[in-house]
Specification:
Order of helices and strands: HHH
Strand content: under 5%
Low-confidence stretches: none
Largest sheet: none
Mean pLDDT: 83
Number of helices: 3
Structural class: mainly alpha
Distance between the termini: 101 Å
Length: 85
């Protein structure tokens, strides 16, 4: 039977001959570790992006405050602008 043939090859070459090792004992890690790695990586990247977005919002550029000028300087600037046009 097919099971006998597979059993014979497993006894000769070990479980590494199988295309998919049985999901028992240590072999379960071959399935669990990649899944946990992908899930963990996704969570870490999501947390980093969320933190970067909140920092960017907190440090958003603000409109510069208008410097306080002497009213006479302000009038002079306005006059010079009118004279040029």
């Amino acid at each position: 039977t097919e099971e006998e043939i597979v059993g014979h090859y497993v006894s000769l070459y070990g479980e590494r001959i199988l295309s998919q090792p049985p999901e028992t004992g240590f072999n379960r890690l071959a399935v669990i570790v990649p899944v946990l790695t992908v899930v963990g990586g996704t969570l870490v990247v999501g947390a980093l992006l969320r933190r970067q977005k909140s920092r960017a919002a907190a440090t958003a550029p603000r409109a510069p405050a208008r410097p306080t000028l002497d009213p006479s300087i302000d009038e002079r600037i306005e006059r010079e602008i009118r004279e040029e046009t």
